[in-house]
Amino acid sequence: MAETSGPRAHISGQFNAELEAATSHMLEMGGAVERQVLAAVDALESVDSGEAQVIIDSDATINAMEIAIDNECSRILARRQPAAGDLRLVLAITKVIIDLERIGDESSRIARQVIALSETVDADPARPWSREIAATVIEMLRSALDAFARRDATAALAIARGDETIDQQMDAAMQLLIDKMQQQPASAPSCVTAMWALRSLERVGDHARNIAEYAIYMVEGVDVRHTELETLLDWLPQTDR
Amino acid sequence: MSTYGIDLEALQRRPIDSVEAEDVAISVEDLSLSYGGTAALRDINLNVPRRRVTAFIGPSGCGKTSLLRSFNRMNDLVNGCRLNGRVLLEGRDIYAPEVDVSQLRRRVGMVFQKPNPFPMSVYENVAYGLRIQGMNKRRKLDEIVERSLRSAALWDEIKDRLQENALGLSGGQQQRLVIARTIAVEPEVVLLDEPASSLDPISTLKIEELIYELKSSYTIVIVTHNMQQAARVSDMTAFMNLGRLVEYDSTDRLFTNPRQQQTEDYITGRYG
User: Fold this and answer.
1) Average pLDDT of chain B?
2) Is the pLDDT of residue A148 over 70?
3) Cβ–Cβ of B257/A15 closer than 8 Å?
4) Lower CB density within 10 Å: C or N end of chain A?
């Protein structure tokens, strides 16, 4: 495996600029998506249907970014025939933006649950767990993009750990909602709505993990998808080369 | 048999991963070569697989052509050339004293950068090597000329021009004619030294297609400056620099995830 602490500049400055542009556009998209998730969590917290509608409307921008970056990558593949680390970078970007777009979709989904909630109750029945889970997945997303930007495979591997935390938080949140529904059957509709919102947040975590896996592929050239957590963590010390 | 009848193993298989001992056509052992005291190759060790395409890439002066030329002793013609180490063709040292060099070159044919047809008819170009070997039977010659031109993907284009002077063919046709001439004597190995570098893109693709066809019958070694060409046609790729073999691996691996930083820098255009 080539030691890539960060690639040297290309002989072709133009090619270099194209790769850097695609990377920074992807990170920009990541930033926009992260803001969508944050806004969705805020809207959920305050059950603010107006804010929720803004999130739903903004999803078009995320979708357009995905298409634009995808085109950018196709152009690079067609015109530059990238190899080795450059090839893996471009392939990784094309995959990361798919997950980013889906995180955008999940944000819209949460926003739609917020609108549904606003018609029945004035507080999220899953509080305070939705806030906790949101904090975990946003941290995962942020770290995954950060690991990609810094080409840090070790940091990317560590992100897989976030999964366990989310599982525990989700179990607790589900228990809370089930208890609530048993005690106050009338709250069932809003509790189910809250479950959908939590489910979307959990999916954001899954997508963040995918992004971390693409970062590992880009840096190390190994495909760690569909690998058990223990195997990933066993592998962790080896990357400290 | 796996789920849904999917042959997962076939899906996951790379064309080649490494060269198994029984598949080695040419084995290079501790080969060093110098011209008048200047080292051109240093301690090269590598196994060229049989009936596969092996590409040598690297910057100018890296030694890739010297290595190629050592496979049919073309370097013997250079004054002051000194060679240490061994080159084994099917297990036998080609530099052993008892080796007949012209016999060796019949087994290991070579095609150069500039097409070099002889100033004679298309037919005689292809028949040349056979005539030298003493073959004169017209029918047999006809048969081999046709078969060789067909193998070189040239027959359909020039079957009506066999008696015309070969120098009247286009560059791409001339190069394929030279390949036909090379394979007419049924070598085991075909060495290609930048075979497409003087050709236009279409002729280049025809040569590459031809290389792909030929590898079912011949062991092919190609030197090329065009990295995409190496990536397109070869099964194994060797990256050389300053007379050393830096990395030798399956082309798949070398172009997606090379092990050496030097290789990465070169194939991604960061060399220099």
Assistant:
1) 92
2) yes
3) no
4) C
B118: buried, middle or exposed (CB in 10 Å: 19+, 13-18, 0-12)?
A: middle
Distance (Å, rounded) from C-alpha A216 to C-alpha A147?
Answer: 9
Task: Report the gap between the CA of B245 and the closest CA in chain A (Å).
Answer: 16
Which of A160, A41, A148 minimizes the C-alpha distance to A97? A148
Closest partner residue to B270 among A10, A88, A221, by Cβ? Answer: A10
ipTM of the complex: 0.75
Average pLDDT over residues A151-177: 88
Shortest distance between the Cα of A16 and any Cα of chain B, in A, equals: 10
Q: Which of B228, B231, B259 sits opposite A2 (nearest CB)?
A: B259
Instruction: Give me the sheet containing B244-250, strands edge to edge.
Output: B108-111, B189-193, B219-223, B53-57, B236-241, B244-250
Q: How many CB atoms lie within 10 A of CB A185?
A: 9
Residue type, A226: H
User: Contact, B183 vs B109, CB < 8 A?
Assistant: yes
Whether B93 contacts chain A with CB within 8 A: no
Q: Which residue has the tokens 């013997």?
A: B76
Which pTM value belongs to this model? 0.83
How far A79 CA lies from chain B's nearest CA (Å)? 12
